[in-house]
Amino acid sequence: MKVRSLVLLCSAVFVCPPSQADSVRETLAAVPAVLAAQAGARLPDACALLPQSDLEALFPGQSIKKDEPRLSALSKGPQFVENCSYRVRVPNPRTTGDQTKFAWLFILDNGAGPRDFADRFKSRSDTAAMRKATVEKVDGIGDEAFQDVSERETTVYVRKGALFFDVQLDTYSAQTLPNALALARQAASRWSDAAGMGPGDGTIARNEKIEIPADTRESMQAPAEQWPDACAMLTKEDVQAVYPGLDIDGPDKRMAMLTRESREQKSVPLPHPIGCAYTATETRNVSGGRDINTTSIRLNIADMAAKPEYAQRMYKVIRGDADLPGLGTAEQASIKAASGEVAMLKGALTLTLKASSYKGSRDQAQRDKDVELLKALAARVAARLP
After folding, report:
1. Distance, CA of 299 to CA of 226 (rounded, Å)
2. Which residue among 109, 261, 342, 356 has the highest number of C-beta atoms inside a 10 angstrom radius?
């Protein structure tokens, strides 16, 4: 009314003093900006509904990076920030490092009603079983809300007046659902159809710490106490029987640790050696000189698996070029003649037995002899398999 009165007073009929005319022009020029500001104040803003400070309170001390906000489509009228997302780094229960989880708020509709909410609730409920999710209504958030929780993500859908939005968090720990509900509740408090965006109910309740979920992976290795003794399967007496008359050095035992990769890596010493090595030396007098040939013999436990099916996978990795059927108690056995190595599988245990001489690497006849001696040694080992 004030602007209209000034226009009448300073129309073509009435003459205004120059100072009054300037004031009228300034007032008229300011009207579009004022109207635009009033309209903008009544437009939602996804990043104002979900500010970074809320996430910093729920994920104390963690790295949080905001993605580029996304504006609404022009077809929806005056543009507003429709989508706001963040990348949150949280502890990885399986390693000593962190992993990225996403958090975002998406404005679904700025002119919604109860029917829109009901339709979304029905559609998410109808597909819940297929998605292995649970869908339940939630009290105390906006005018109406429901949560949609699956193994991978937790989403809270909220209608506050005509504003319909969802808050989504990648599932991380038992804190995920309470965090999502807190963010949704705080976001709803920052909006009203009459006033538009507002400060909300205040500061979101801060978490004291980030909950690290338990690492529930099953170990693929058997417990340390179940690992057998490599030197009990390949004894010095066995080597002496297969290589009679040779000087036998050993056993050289190789000990190891059983380590499980997790946030807190746990390593325990294995009670028995997983490697057992011998050296068989043959010395002959030839033309007044000494002819020496050494054979390196080693048994290595490739794996003691938690389940036989895991051992089958390992055996596929270590198996030889040709099968050796009927080798003692071994369920499967194979040989790589070129490298002088036998692989065996029994239950959850996989191992390799290698025997090769210095001369065998250069002489085919000696290599053939080495292979026969290896097979004889493998038969003794197979008979001792636990």
Report:
1. 18
2. 342
Cβ-based neighbour number of residue 29 at 10 Å = 9
User: Which residue is it, tokens 């991978």?
Assistant: 152
The confidence score (pLDDT) of residue 1 equals 37
| Residue appearing with tokens 């804190």 | 175
Q: By three-state DSSP, how is residue 162 classified?
A: coil
* DSSP-based helix, strand, coil % in the chain, nearest 5: 30, 35, 35
Spell out where 125-233 has E strands. Answer: 134-138, 144-149, 153-160, 163-170, 191-192, 196-197
Mean pLDDT score, 38-42: 56
pLDDT band at residue 55 using 50, 70 and 90 as cut-offs: very high
| Mean pLDDT for the stretch of residues 24-38 | 44
pTM attached to this predicted model: 0.62
- 226: closest CA among 357, 360, 349? 349
Cα–Cα distance, 243 to 355 (Å, whole number) = 11
What's the average model confidence in pLDDT over 176-192?
97
**Distance (Å, whole) CA 83 – CA 102:** 13
Is the separation of the CB atoms in 164 and 112 below 8 Å? yes
pLDDT digit string, tens, across residues 105-155: 999 999 999 999 999 999 999 999 999 999 999 999 999 999 999 999 999
Contact 374/239 with Cβ under 8 angstroms?
no
